[in-house]
Amino acid sequence: MRRTTGETIIFWTLPAVAVIWVAAFFLFPGFLPPMSPRAPAAEVADFYLDHTARVRYSMILLNWFCVALVPILMLIVERMRDMTHRTPVLRYCMIGCAGAAPITFLTATVFWLLAAFRPDRSPDLTLLFNDLGWVTFTCGVPFLVAQSLFLALAIYLDEQEEPVFRRWVAHFNVLVAAALVPAGFAGLTLSGVLAWDGFLSFWVRNVAIAIWIVVMSVVLGRSLRRDSAAAEAAEAAEAAA
Amino acid sequence: MKRLAWRGDPKRELWLMWYATLIFYNVFTVVFFVLTRTQPPAPPWYDADQATAWFAHRHQGLLVGFALMFALGGLSMTSTALITYSIRRMSVSRAFAYSYLILYAVSAVPGLLLICLAMTVGAMRPDRDPAIQHWLYDFGFLSFSGTMGVFLVGSLIWMAAILLDKNRVLPRWFGYLNLCNALTEVVVSPAWILDRGAFSWNGTIAWWINVAVFGMYTGVFITLLRNMIIREDFGTGPLPDLPPRKPRQRAAAEVAEVAS
Questions:
Q1: Is residue B122 part of a domain?
Q2: Substitution target from B69, B77, B236 for chain A, most A beta carbons within 10 A
Q3: Interface membership of A144 toward B (CB under 8 Å)
Q4: What is the value of ipTM here, to two decimals?
Q5: Residues β-bridged to residue A34
Q6: Residue B5 clears pLDDT 70, i.e. is over it
């Protein structure tokens, strides 16, 4: 079996995982519309009492599968081997970010699940878990920002006639990093575009992540196909010799 | 011309990592010591009302400072990557390099992200129940100072690699300095138990001596990594020595010659 066969299997887990993420997003009752950071403790406690089951099921789903992006990120890291880099440092940066970023999402699910575990807890404690969940989910972008920047840099430094990823993919990653940065500032205010339910911190950030996954899977798929074709050609040449 | 020289420089990836490391540690220092004033840490013996007042007093600084960490904290991966590279360049098993990479990538969440979360959540609602503010206060400081194992084992891994290395990538004395850094993680452990005295999280030993060791260690490794990049020959054998420094007058004369 060729190396690329296993990579193709990993790659095709992505649509299934993406469906699960989208399902979790719609199943969590606090996303559409996003819960307000201005809601008083009693209202937040009522939310968990009224929607206990949906919070639990959606967050168990996300807890299972938010880390499922790790193997996909490793496919990108493997593609980076073919870039004309002199050293593996940018791959190391990507591996580091791929470890830290999904754990941040995982931590957010833990806080939300804790809030839903005993919804009859004191409303102040439910508000605390809710805040921790939302701040972790929203502000926890440092490794996603860095990951996009490292990938962009890696593509810019890949100076060959047939680069692994085209230059526009690097520009795109810089754009995504810029779109994610404002979410880091969500703690600063409880209302407006920066608040965790605001235009920049919720919509721009989450749409940017979704578009990143779609675009990167398309370019990754193309690059995998090219790699697979090259491996086949090499095998054929070897057999002929 | 400058652009061409940059394009051809085989060390540009290493230099980018090094400058990013320098930027990260500067931002880190400004955020923790100036903006949020969470270093030196506030006293562990504060009661709930004092902790609540502490959050209220530092409201804006905490939120702005940790927002900067949320935006730029991922740059911490550059020093991890560069150190992992230093271990790869040594005559030791890659297992050392990969162990270091994983340990320090994992450390980013409990060692850096949790204090940002706890302090942001505490600062964003200063009117929260004081008992809960007190818990967030403890959570922030203890997660930051008390994330020990990853740094302890990570430093020991780097130390072992340096001491076993035959390629002279880093000096042996720096190997032993890693041991000092590892020991700070042992010394800080009583901070989980004591809320006052030299071993508490802001104590003379658990904070002041530790931060002096950590500061020196960080300054030294940033300098040594710079030297490593200058010495790098992309071979697999021993790293050459640093090129000799030109006498100042000669260097100045050369610059003047080029300028004219």
A1: yes
A2: B77
A3: yes
A4: 0.92
A5: A31
A6: no
